[in-house]
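tool=predict chain=A
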Amino acid sequence: MQYQVIITKKAIGDLRRALNYIAKYLYNKTAARNLNVNFYSFAEGLAYFPHRYPIVSDPLLHSLQVRYIPIDNYILFFIIDETKNQIQILRFLHSRSEWRKILGNASSETSDNPNNIYIHESISSLLK
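tool=predict ok
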């Protein structure tokens, strides 16, 4: 079964801030480019095998079935909506950030939110 992958604007904003920081402040455009490719590669893979990633152990986030993928020094957080056959990427946060507090509002993001970006068939074109 293939899921539709939805990336929230918050997650896109998180990614852009990370890429900007790495490229402009750490002066490492190659690392920024690699992180961008890795983000979209993992996001695309979620359409096929989202259950292979663990649920966050934090009690609140666990109750919301928030899952995570470590990507370099960052963590991609997502949920699976089986009723809509969708994956929703909530946030992309640095592993040393206070992500438990930041994700406390994770349930306020919904797939019906008009501020979400919908990725339909494939996001391979974004990797170019």
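Residues 106-111, 120-128 have pLDDT under 50 and may be disordered. The chain has one domain: 4-127.
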